[in-house]
From TrEMBL:
Domain of life: Bacteria
Keywords, comma-separated and alphabetical: Cell membrane, Membrane, Transmembrane, Transmembrane helix, Transport
Gene3D superfamilies: 1.10.1760.20
Protein name in the entry: Biotin transporter
InterPro entries the record matches: BioY
Residue segments, region Disordered: 159-180
TM helices/strands, residue ranges: 6-28, 35-53, 65-83, 95-117, 137-157
Membrane topology according to the record: Multi-pass membrane protein
Pfam family, one: BioY
Family: Belongs to the BioY family.
Higher taxonomy: Bacteria, Bacillati, Actinomycetota, Actinomycetes, Micrococcales
Species for this entry: Oerskovia merdavium
PANTHER family, per database record: BIOTIN TRANSPORTER BIOY, BIOTIN TRANSPORTER BIOY-RELATED
Protein's cellular compartments: Cell membrane
Leader sequence residues: none
Amino acid sequence: MPGSLALFGNAVPITLQTLGVMLAGALLGAWRGALAMLTFLALVAAGLPLLSGGRGGPAVFVGPSVGYLIGFVAGAAVVGLIVERFRTLTFWRVLVASVVGGMLVMYALGIPLQALVTGFPLQTVATGSLMYLPGDLLKAVIAASVTVGVVRAYPAASPLRRPQSPRRSTEQRSAASPAA
């Protein structure tokens, strides 16, 4: 999503891209969500103008938002891992997964690397990042609402209905067959 909004001179703009991270993890699951984000970053690295302001190319991976870009992959994976642990998807469960993966993980990677790249103290960058909290909470609410709505309308889209790994699907098959 090329549109962005930079507030108060912060080096990292406000976008809806983290909403995509939350939705990728919640709807695709951990592995598929992380792979979707890796594919997105590969396209960005190849030069496609997919980031805010139409940015793309290898230079974005040495800029102030590099930690957040890495956080796209980790955040989608964590959202997916948390969602996959539930037996049923509810708004509140997906909201918690989106907050943990789509916010906490992203901030845990983005803030320190932004401080490193910009040369600002970690506390200054962390304080400046507080302005993102209300918008990110709103994105988490939207991600939870969309996820629950999609799964209700199309149950096959639920990451809970797919085997997550070859090992898990083997375990599920052996549990389903009668013991000899």
